[in-house]
Design goal:
Chain A: One of its GO terms (cellular component) is extracellular space. Chain A: Its EC number is 2.7.3.2. The complex is a heterodimer of chains A (381) and B (415). Chain A is an alpha+beta fold and 381 residues long. In chain A, strands 2-3-4-5-1-8-10-9 form an eight-stranded antiparallel sheet. In chain A, a hairpin with a 5-residue loop joins strand 4 and strand 5. In chain B, a hairpin with a 4-residue loop joins strand 3 and strand 4. Chain B is built from 15 helices and ten strands. Chain B is globular and about 70 Å long. The chains are: A alpha+beta (381), B alpha+beta (415).
């Protein structure tokens, strides 16, 4: 909860043992890493805005997790969380991001010219292409912790910056609370509208507070560039279009993002970024690039192959249903995207995805003809 | 047991020595609003006007009374435990309400919330409790079950009888704000006291974290088991944190006296049985409550109570007696009569479906209970239910005979 922290001081009168959460049934990164000794060492700390250890871990306590899916189980309330609670978050980050060490440096590369190919994914298989990331505005608390005043200030800044975009990025902002029914229906039909979070993973961390105050959606007139304001992060930036021209999608993504960053800087605000963690976002799983680049692709035969999961793993890709995370695939159409976020640059991740999709389509074509794909199985990337 | 709790709370615990059954006048005096010291002021980066919630689409008691001026006055304050206005109103901000059902829209995080945020809570209480003004009125507490008259209903109509209330342990924060250690202490104190109950009140505690599947199924079959709250009214107030840690259910061997630990309140106390013997249900209720109170006082604890607000609970709607006395009653003919709602209103009763709040009636069977909680004693409210349900049964019988029924006159309001 924002700002007042007499509560944490009061809590310190109880012993660490009395306060330590029961994590015996839990399966998430936080529960794997947190120990009573660590809890004792960190419980008296707070970030300058008053975010405490219990604030960081509440979502992981309330959501024990799933035997098959390992959730993160902790969130950041501000940029400083990653520093003040590094004893907990560094191992969580290392676990979640394939061994990324506290001393590692993350490379940012938003130059679309560095992407090779990607404009030619077979449209008979690739239905749509999309790249998304998140950005946080430095100096403001993040969605789990921000006050209404802060959230509104982030919205105001975002509206001003986005209003300055022009050309094919000319667009309009729709505040969730002022939307007309007609606008709402249009945004739903375009698959742009985001709902109040229902996932207990998000609600337990406080991200749903004051809904729909200061939340909204901006998109360009062409409906190929979209920004969510104050959903799970300050900003989620999405570039998308039908078909397989991932290069064009990534071009627009990089151009748009860079323009937005410039517009924010002109108004005296930077994005949260550092050379160890890259772009800083609410969930530790989205650090680094915060980038998920993917396609909706038809793989009816490949998806039934015994080695499908293994191939995805080797290509560093993940599959989801076409409704996004935690949904099922429909009609053999999958959402395939990069699995990594941190430790690879944006260009590297999109390159891996593009190359991986090309290979999967090749495999699909072989299986259609009844041929074996054994000689196409790649090495682990 | 010399726990760190006894050291922390010693300044409040001396009140336990002075308290009497039914609450302590001394405690009431010492918790008078002037004597409550606030916690560290809340650190703010934005002026109150930038933080004031948007309540234009809202229909709840908090939204009706939280003016920008009151918000500005209270937003920098915190209770000694650090509970803030923003926390108290969060549930009302997040749940705009329903055009037909006016929810309260705020909660208390601790006993002191009712003092520190009185400028908002007093008008909310007044609206919710039919004009009861906490700044000027006193609430009567009366747990003498012998005073109830004609408490045996016609069992051709009344299927079951039930009385419930809540109790909070003074010195520990309430479910929206409590820490894990506090919640576990509530559990320890209550379970320890309950183990001292004897005779027909002898019973057993089932912790939610340690329940076996078999125990769980039995409790579900008995309709005793409570679930993790799903209602956003409760989850937005923070009551479901750390579930199911330190939550549990105690019941006596006869399954007629039941206590929920750390659900929406520290304790919810329920006396129930099949049939229409409301008098016996209430007698057991009062006896059990007094016995539990005696047992916790032996250990140096007491219930939150004061003479303005009666028993202090999480939701302002449950202040005073916290009492809901009700029956499941078959009124198939009356249920179709358009005058039913008016009759209930004037009898100061409310109807619910047989699944409890926000459920529908099935087969003409209603859950009928008292509307009021504050400003009337337990005995008065149970008598209201007894008299009212008897009146409804009379109406049903008259309709069976083809006779007409009358809408009773409305009762007096608080001035």
């Amino acid at each position: 909860m924002p700002f007042g922290n007499t509560h944490n001081e009061m809590k310190l009168k109880f012993t660490s043992e009395q306060e330590y959460p029961d994590l015996s049934k839990h399966n998430n990164h936080m529960a794997k890493v947190l120990t009573p000794a660590m809890y004792e060492g960190l419980r008296s700390k707070q970030t300058p805005s008053g975010f405490t250890l219990d604030d960081v871990i509440q979502t992981g306590i309330d959501n024990p997790g799933h035997p098959f899916i390992m959730t993160v189980g902790c969130v950041a309330g501000d940029e400083e969380t990653y520093e003040v609670f590094k004893e907990l978050l560094d191992p969580v980050i290392e676990d979640r991001h394939g061994g990324y060490k506290p001393s590692d440096k993350h490379k940012t590369d938003l130059n679309p010219d560095n992407l090779k190919g990607g404009d030619d994914l077979d449209p008979n298989y690739v239905l749509s292409s999309r790249v998304r990331t998140g950005r946080s505005v430095r100096g403001f608390c993040l969605p789990p912790h921000c006050s209404r005043g802060e959230r509104r200030a982030v919205e105001k800044l975002s509206i001003e910056a986005l209003a300055s975009l022009s050309g094919d990025l000319n667009g309009k902002y729709y505040a969730l609370k002022n939307m007309t029914d007609a606008e709402q229906q249009q945004l739903i039909d375009d698959h742009f509208l985001f709902d109040k979070p229902v996932s207990p993973l998000l609600l337990a961390s406080g991200m749903g507070r004051d809904w729909p105050d200061a939340r909204g959606i901006w998109h360009n007139d062409n409906k190929t560039f979209l920004v969510w304001v104050n959903e799970e992060d300050h900003l989620r930036v999405i570039s998308m279009q039908k078909g397989g021209n991932m290069k064009e999608v990534f071009n627009r993504f990089c151009t748009g993002l860079t323009k937005i960053e410039t517009l924010f800087k002109e108004r005296g605000h930077a994005f949260m970024w550092n050379e160890h963690l890259g772009y800083v976002l609410t969930c530790p799983s989205n650090l680094g690039t915060g980038l998920r680049a993917g396609v909706h692709v038809k793989l009816p035969n490949m998806s039934k192959h015994a080695k499908f999961e293994d191939v995805l793993k080797r290509l560093r890709l993940q599959k989801r249903g076409t409704g996004g995370v935690d949904t099922a695939a429909v009609g053999g159409v999958f959402d395939i995207s990069n699995a990594d976020r941190l430790g690879f640059s944006e260009v590297e991740l999109v390159q891996m995805m593009v190359d991986g999709i090309k290979l999967l389509i090749e495999m699909e074509k072989k299986l259609e003809k009844g041929q074996s794909i054994d000689d196409l199985i790649p090495a682990q990337k | 047991m010399a726990s760190s709790f006894s050291r922390i709370l010693s300044s409040r615990r001396h009140l336990g020595v002075l308290s009497l059954v039914g609450g302590s006048v001394t405690a009431g005096f010492l918790l008078h609003r002037d004597h409550v010291t606030a916690g560290t002021p809340v650190r703010r980066m934005y002026p109150a006007s930038a933080e004031y919630p948007d309540l234009r689409q809202h229909n709840n008691c908090m939204a009706s009374h939280l003016t920008p001026a009151i918000y500005a006055k209270l937003c920098d304050k915190a209770t000694p435990n650090g509970y803030t206005l923003d926390q108290a109103i969060q549930t009302g901000v997040d749940n705009p309400g329903h055009p037909f059902i006016k929810t309260v829209g705020m909660v208390a995080g601790d006993e002191e919330s009712y003092e520190v945020f009185a400028d908002l809570l007093d008008p909310v209480i007044k609206e919710r409790h039919n004009g009861y003004d906490p700044s000027t009125m006193k609430h009567p507490t009366d747990l003498d079950a012998s005073k109830v008259q004609s408490g045996q209903f016609d069992e051709r109509y009344v299927l079951s009888s039930r009385v419930r209330t809540g109790r909070s342990i003074r010195g520990l924060s309430l479910p929206p704000a409590c820490t894990r250690a506090e919640r576990r202490e509530v559990e320890r104190v209550v379970v320890d006291a309950l183990s001292g109950l004897k005779d027909d009140l002898t019973g057993r505690y089932f912790s939610l974290t340690q329940m076996t599947d078999k125990e769980q199924q039995c409790l579900i079959d008995d309709h005793f088991l409570f679930d993790k709250p799903v209602s956003p009214l409760l989850t937005c107030a923070g009551m479901a944190r750390d579930w199911p840690d330190a939550r549990g259910i105690w019941h006596n061997n006869e399954k007629t006296f039941l206590i929920w630990v750390n659900e929406e309140d520290h304790t919810r106390v329920i006396s129930m049985e099949k049939g229409g013997n409301m008098k016996r249900v209430f007698e057991r209720f009062c006896r059990g409550l007094k016995e539990v109170e005696r047992l916790i006082q032996e250990r140096g604890w007491e219930f939150m109570w004061n003479e303005r607000l009666g028993y202090v609970l999480t939701c302002p709607s449950n202040l005073g007696t916290g009492l809901r006395a009700g029956v499941h009653v078959k009124l198939p003919l009356l249920s179709k009569d358009p005058r039913l709602n008016k009759i209930l209103d004037n009898l100061r009763l409310q109807k619910r479906g047989t699944g409890g709040v926000d459920t529908a009636a099935v087969g003409g069977v209603f859950d009928i209970s008292n509307l009021d909680r504050l400003g009337h004693s337990e005995v008065q409210l149970v008598q209201t239910v007894v008299d009212g349900v008897n009146y409804l049964i009379e109406c049903e019988k008259r309709l069976e005979r083809g006779q007409d029924i009358k809408v009773p006159p409305p009762p007096k309001q608080f001035k």
